[in-house]
Write a structure and sequence with these properties.
alpha/beta; seven-stranded mixed β-sheet; 3 helices
């Protein structure tokens, strides 16, 4: 198993990277400091995109565009509220950037439907079923 960087450290480094590039950002919600998932909301021209941590079909870590492009900001906020209600460990970072670039160094899975990412993650983290069989 590959060691994982604590979420609090990852978010701190991300905030420093965007600040160094002159991009305004804020941690809108703090989740679990050790292992919380991260969502990045990119605000531009009254609309927003949301990128969430995910895995591709091969199990590689990265982010996916949760709403498939720019959407009204209210829709992005609604998505994040629902996600935070399900996952209390979720971190939400909001940035403002006209071109919509989330400035992530990790892969961004562009053409993967949300269900595929969820199934890939489920297969990685599912343990043995009752009776000791998978």
């Amino acid at each position: 198993m590959t060691p994982r960087l604590k979420t609090e450290i990852w978010v701190g480094a991300y905030m420093r990277r965007i600040a160094a590039a002159g991009v305004m950002g804020v941690v809108a919600r703090r989740g679990d400091p050790d292992a919380g998932a991260v969502a990045v909301k990119v605000y531009a021209r009254g609309e927003a995109r949301v990128f969430v941590q995910s895995r591709d079909a091969a199990g590689a870590a990265g982010f996916r565009d949760a709403l498939t492009g720019f959407q009204p900001e209210a829709e992005a906020d609604g998505y994040l509220q629902k996600t935070a209600a399900i996952d209390p460990d979720l971190w939400i970072v909001e940035i403002e950037r006209e071109d919509g670039d989330p400035m992530l160094t990790e892969a961004v899975f562009a053409d993967q439907p949300p269900g595929e990412a969820s199934r890939a993650a489920d297969s990685l983290f599912s343990g043995p079923k009752r009776g000791g069989r998978r």
